[in-house]
């Protein structure tokens, strides 16, 4: 099964191979009905990628203009005397973001029949997506790579231990800057990844991070890894592993791609990330209950509104769960 994301990437690669005069464009229909649809296009003079959406009428744009997106020009174009909204990518280094946006629009516009409805959907999506294009963020730092690797490794371990692929992708919240990295149906898991030799100390970045409010159970999972200059367990390898698992889950493949972008991971930086391999040394977890050392809003003096702190896991080492025990705990609805 070819999902929308891969289909659009393949379509773009095909457009790149199309012959054409400098004044011409080539189009590929990616979604829509006979009344309204979206096309991926290429302008041959500068190889600029374009999303053409329509047909529309000028009055649709009058009361609700599109948001300004850095590196993307919007204008009106004509085909067969019909008007289309054209989004042209000016920053070619952002082609991966642009094609992921095309996949999201394909999904959102799949059942749209009328231009007014379609334009409302497009505007809503672009308001969210302008943040992806406006970011000045460079490549992930070593600590950010370590954190992302730990989350992806834990996601793969969950999938390998009978938690459904779609459930894991929905549960992954690390890129959303949520309080907890995984929010599963029966439990939440906060991930602490480290390549340090000393794994007894973990840093907690807020009073919400170990606050169990709103979840049935909360666990802190520590993924201790060794970092090597060469090896197979690189960030690109972990990403590819999950992409392959999502080949039969097109909607969740798109969600995964969006969360990767939100985490700061870009395929264009793959060669840089391939220089560091993460070998799992140990995975252990702790139930964050009344006996676990933590600070929350309910446990601090009045007047303190935020805090960062460190926990010595050596003081609760005897409470550590194996990974199999964690899987049982987050998969079971029975009371402790």
Automatic annotation (TrEMBL):
It holds the Pfam family DUF4420. It comes from the Bacteria. This is PD-(D/E)XK motif protein. The lineage of its organism: Bacteria, Pseudomonadati, Pseudomonadota, Gammaproteobacteria, Oceanospirillales.
């Amino acid at each position: 099964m070819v999902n929308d994301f891969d289909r659009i990437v393949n379509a773009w690669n095909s457009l790149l191979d199309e012959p054409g005069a400098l004044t011409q464009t080539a189009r590929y229909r990616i979604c829509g009905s006979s009344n309204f649809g979206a096309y991926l296009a290429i302008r041959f003079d500068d190889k600029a990628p374009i999303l053409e959406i329509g047909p529309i009428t000028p009055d649709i744009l009058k009361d609700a203009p599109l948001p300004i997106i850095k590196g993307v020009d919007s204008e009106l174009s004509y085909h067969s005397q019909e008007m289309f909204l054209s989004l042209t990518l000016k920053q070619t280094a952002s082609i991966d973001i642009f094609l992921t946006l095309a996949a999201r629009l394909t999904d959102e516009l799949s059942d749209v029949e009328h231009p007014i409805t379609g334009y409302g959907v497009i505007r809503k999506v672009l308001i969210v997506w302008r943040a992806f294009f406006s970011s000045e963020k460079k490549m992930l730092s070593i600590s950010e790579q370590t954190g992302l690797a730990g989350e992806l490794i834990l996601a793969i371990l969950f999938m390998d231990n009978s938690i459904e692929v779609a459930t894991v992708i929905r549960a992954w919240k690390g890129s959303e800057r949520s309080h907890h990295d995984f929010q599963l149906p029966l439990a939440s898991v906060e991930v602490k990844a480290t390549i340090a030799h000393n794994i007894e100390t973990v840093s907690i970045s807020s009073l919400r991070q170990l606050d169990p409010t709103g979840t049935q159970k909360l666990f802190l999972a520590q993924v201790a890894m060794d970092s090597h200059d060469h090896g197979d367990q690189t960030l690109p390898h972990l990403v590819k592993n999950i992409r392959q698992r999502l080949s039969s889950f097109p909607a969740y493949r798109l969600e995964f791609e969006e969360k990767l972008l939100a985490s700061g991971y870009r395929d264009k930086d793959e060669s840089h990330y391939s220089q560091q391999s993460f070998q799992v040394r140990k995975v252990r977890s702790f139930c964050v209950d009344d006996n676990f050392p933590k600070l929350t809003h309910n446990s601090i003096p009045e007047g303190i509104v935020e805090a960062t702190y460190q926990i010595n896991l050596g003081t609760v080492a005897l409470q550590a769960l194996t990974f199999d025990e964690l899987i049982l705990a987050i998969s079971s609805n029975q009371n402790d």
